[in-house]
Every structure is written in structure tokens, then in C-alpha cells.
Amino acid sequence: MENDAVENEPGTPQRRPPIRRRVLLASVAGCAVLGGVLALLPWGTGGTGTPAPAPGAQALTAVTTGVPAALPDLAVLIDEREKRLRTHPRDAASWAVLGTAYVEQGRRTAEAEYYPKAEKALRTSLKVREKNAEAMDGMAALANARRDYRAARTWSEAALKADPKRWTVYPQLIDAQTGLGDYKAAKRAADRMLKLRSGPAVLARAAGVYRDGGRREDAAAALSDAAAGAEAPAERAAYLERGGQLAWERGDLDVALRHFREAVRLDPDQRAALAGQGRTLAALGRTTEALNAYRAAFAKQPNPEYALELGELYESLGLGQAARVQYDLLRERAARAAAGGVDEELVLGRFEADHGDTDSAVRRLRAEWRSQPGIAVADALGWALHRSGKDTEALKFARVATDREHGGTVRSALYVYHLGMIERELKRPGAARRHLQEALRINPRFSPTRVPLTEEALKELGEPSLEDVPDMDAKPRRK
Asked: Which DSSP symbol is given to 2?
């Protein structure tokens, strides 16, 4: 019954006109890659006269090859597929494309109402054709977008069973394994992906695995190559945004801001980069610009995470009423996301721990840890336990989030700050001082509210005493 499918579907990749680009990699402290600066300068089209693919065809190519697509192009693709399916309701491939496009639309806009539409389209594709790797791949992407990592892993494995060489499944499997805290499995999936495929999309996804494994130099190099090799502006903008986030995490604010601004210039719908600008400008003390960037990002992509960051920025400026407005918006957006099947318990737990009901935060995050024991959840649960006065238990989770043996290899100033503050409360001054100092080394301006608390705590802890210095001559205890 699939003979209704159109032959020669639009979207076959065409050779693009040559693009002039320049990538500048500068070194910092002798490390050429870690301090890599990606400065993509203006480019133009060549003189070949080859027409660019139509918007729907561009989005089709992006959706089926696992790369970011421009929002206007996605809208055209969705409209085209919906029209086709009215006359060809048993076209399994078109149902799979439509569902995957809905997932990307929901992810880019933070509008969870696209996700039930995506699920309906993808399940229809599977009903028309049961052994359908394209639809299974889409279901895995949908589950990841909803933060249902167990379902994402199940669908990814099913898709690979149906089509072992389908490389676009591996990014979904990597995200699922990471969300479940299985970093070794995520690395294995990345290694298999790299054997199957090369190119910008693969490099960008591998960069995330390198970053999670503490290999920031490799992550920066991979993102540089991905951005240099990307052809479509929306794809290049997405990789620049990730490069900006990596630069932000290591405290290289000028580089981060340059990445974020270039990403927005290339793709005005790149709202994650706009929020990144807000984060970076706030750290630079340019608060008016930061507020404007955050507001613009939230207006077009009302992500609860942005509402939390903007609320905390207002708090740091002493604007309590404005902060409360943002926190109300956070709850509202999280509720709307939940109606679309999205798990927002992590951001809600983080919010409640610092600004609301700490007991509620602990309950939410305990449940989240049982179902999805990733590093981000370990950190959030440890902090919620600390805020509720359960510091001994809190220390266990804070160590999981930062202990390399347990997968906590992400170089996160926030995670190390949480660990140091918990140790301070437990009267462990040496460890607390060491970790709080490390947080500032990782990123000296990682938070407008937490950096002053870090500095105040270090001042209170004072200089190290002889009691803080380990006795190198002491004999090890027998176990």
C-alpha cells in the first residue's frame, strides 16, 4: 500500500555554491584548541549560478540527515507533508518526515503542543509500515525532546535493529545514554557513529561526548571543524551556539559572546544563542543588554530554563518583584510542557531548591533520580538535600556529580560550587576551600548570584591551616 509514495522526493541534496569562509583559531596559555576562537566572517555566494534548494527541500534534507533546520523552512516542509498526506494517507515515509519535523519545531520553539502531533504522525507511520527505522528514529528524537530517556534508548535500539547502518539514530542513543548516566555507553555509541559517518553533524555530536568526558580541547576542535564545514546558515548557527556554550563554561566570555552573536546573525531564530548572550552579558556586568537578550529569547522560545536564569538575574539586581514574575512564568511554562508530555522535573526541582519549597524539590528530584540518574540530576538532588538540611546525604550526590569514577567529568563551576558549599556546612574547611576555589578557576563569573556567595564563603574560611595539609609521612590505614 506504499506505492502511493512520490518518486524522486524533493530534498535531494544539491551542490551548493562555493562559500567563502574563514575560521580563526587562537591559542590561550599555550593550548591552541582549548582557547579556540571561531570567528566566521561574512561570506557570499560564488558565481556558478546554481539555484539554492527550495525551503521545503532544504528542511527535508536537514530533517532526514539529522542536522538543524531553519524554522521558516520547517514550516514549509510541514505544510508540504500535510498536503501530501491528505491525498496519500498511506505514505509511511511522509508520516515519518512530518513527525520528525514536528519534533524539531517543538524543540526550537519550546512549544510542547507540537509533540502530541509528532507522536500521532510517527505512530501512524509505524502503523502503515511496522519495520520502519525512520519513524523509530523520530520516536527516539521525540522521547529525548520530552526528557524520557528510557523510551529514547528503547526506540533508538529498535531503529538500529531495523537498520544497523542508520547513523542518524546514534545521536539519539547518545542523548538517551547520557540522560540515564551511562557515559561509557554514550562513548561507545559515539565511537560507532564516527565509524559509520563523517561530516559536520557527526563532529558536532561527538563534541558533546568529548565535553561530557572532560575533553574540552577535543570538543572545541570538533565544534570548530563542524562550524567550518556546515553549509546551511541554521546548521552553522547551531554549532556556533554550542561553541559559545563551551567557551562560557570555561569562563572565556569574549569568545562566548562572539560565538553567540554570530549565531544569531546567521539565524535570528537561534534563541539558545540569544539566551547565551544574556548569560554572558550578565557576567560581564552589562545588565541592561543582558536583560534585553533574555527577554527576546524567552519571547520567542519560552523555555522554563530561561525564565529561571532571568529571574535570578533580576534577584541579583535587587528586583524581587520582577524575579517573582519570571518564576510564575517558569511554573506556567513547565505546566504547559508537561501537558505535551515533557518532563520538566529537573528545572522545577532546581527552582524549588533555591526559590521555593525545598521539600518539594527533594521529592521531585528523588523521583527523577530513580528514573533518570544522570549527572545533572545528581547535582540538583544533592543541592536540594543541602537546602533542606540533609547535608550528609547531599554530599553523596554532589560527589557523584563531580567524581570522575562515576562519570562526573564535566568541568562545571556550578557543580563544584555546590560540592564546596555542602562541605563547608559539614565543617570540612580544607575540601570546601579547595572546591570553591576550583569553581572560580573553572569560570570566575559563572553566576551573578552565586559568585558573590562563593567569595564570601572563601573569605569566611580564610587561609589554609596546618590541619588542612595532609600528613605525607602518615602510614595508610589498613582496610
From this structure: G
